[in-house]
Amino acid sequence: MSIKKHIPNTITCCNLISGCIATWFAFESDFTMALLFIVIGAVFDFFDGMVARLLHVSSPIGKELDSLADDITFGFAPSAIVFSYLCTFHIHLPFIPFLAFIMAAFSALRLAKFNLDERQALGFIGLPTPANALFWGSLVLGLQEYNIYFEGMEWAVLVGTFISSYLLIAEIPMFALKFKTWGWKGNEIKYIFILSCIPLLLLLKVSGFAAIIAWYVILSVATNKK
Q1: In 10 A of CB 24, how many CB atoms?
Q2: What is the full DSSP assignment across 169-187?
Q3: Shortest CA distance to 46 belongs to which of 18, 87, 25?
Q4: pLDDT of residue 42
Q5: What is the mean pLDDT of each run of 10 residues along the chain (226 residues)?
Q6: Other C-beta atoms within 10 Å of 137: how many?
Q7: Helix, strand, or coil here: 114?
Q8: HEC profile for 121-144?
Q9: Cα–Cα distances in angstroms (integers) from residue 35 to residues 19, 102, 136, 161, 215, in the given order
């Protein structure tokens, strides 16, 4: 039995394990480490598909395993981050923080739709789960680091969770950073997005990723020709 056929699935499992570790740190309210392991999971997620194509060992099992790993790393882990953050507020209704896990369910639904949707070869329909996870990980970390609070913020976070859950499955075309050519023509939106990310990161640092994802959604909606 060839060893190379197991390499992509091993990388995918590393993604899943990273998501499990990120979730543990999230429940410990260590949002820095939680975000770090979400990013590590995203790196593994990027390379598993690439390696499978290079080795010509893509398989239906690998596709299903990838979706399972992605829902842990980019669905359950960010939900755990929001859950732990909401638990820091004095909310009279104890079940409210658990509503954060709705995002994990919508992430699973988004991944299932992606596996069956043939329209998403060059772009996305709805917000990709890694982008959603990066948004919540960096946003909560930024709110914690800068000690930002305003009256009713816990409800704003909860509403934001519902909005991002909707965006995961929304029939909204969103561009992907895939280039057929490197010229300006036809890639204007992509280059504008990339260049605008630089000042956001320099100004906001890690929490700038939340602003970048929000800007990505706004730009996708604004440039949607349908």
Answers
A1: 15
A2: H---EEE-S--SS-SSTT-
A3: 18
A4: 95
A5: 79 96 98 97 90 80 90 98 94 90 96 80 85 97 90 94 97 84 82 92 91 95 78
A6: 29
A7: helix
A8: CCEEECCCHHHHHHHHHHHHHHHH
A9: 10, 19, 9, 17, 20
Residues, the chain, total?
226
Distances (CA, A) of 40 to 18, 147, 152: 7, 26, 33
Phi then psi dihedrals of residue 123, to 5 deg: -155, -170
- CA-to-CA distance for 38 and 52, rounded, in angstroms? 21
Hunting for tokens 């909606």 — which residue is that? 221
Query: Would you say 220 and 213 are in contact if contact means Cβ atoms under 8 Å apart?
Result: no
Q: Which of 30, 27, 159, 147 is nearest to 87 (CA)?
A: 27
Structure confidence at residue 1 (pLDDT):
47
The amino acid occupying position 90 is H
Q: Which two tokens stand for residue 226?
A: 């349908």
Going by C-alpha positions, the residue among 161, 185, 47, 39 that lies closest to residue 98 is 161
Identify the bridge partners of residue 125 per DSSP, sorted by sequence position.
173
Q: Give 102: exposed, middle or buried? Use CB within 10 Å, 0-12, 13-18, 19+.
A: middle
Distance CA 73, CA 24 (A): 11
Give ∠ CA 148-150-153 in degrees, rounded to 5: 95
What b-and-e string marks burial along 155-183, b requiring 16 or more CB atoms within 10 Å of the CB? Answer: eebbebbeebbebbbbebbbbeeeeeeee
Do residues 173 and 125 lie in contact, with contact meaning Cβ atoms separated by under 8 Å?
A: yes
Rounded to a whole number of angstroms, the distance between the first and last alpha carbons of the chain is: 49
Q: What is the pTM of this model?
A: 0.92
Helix axes 7-27, 31-55, angle to 10 degrees: 170
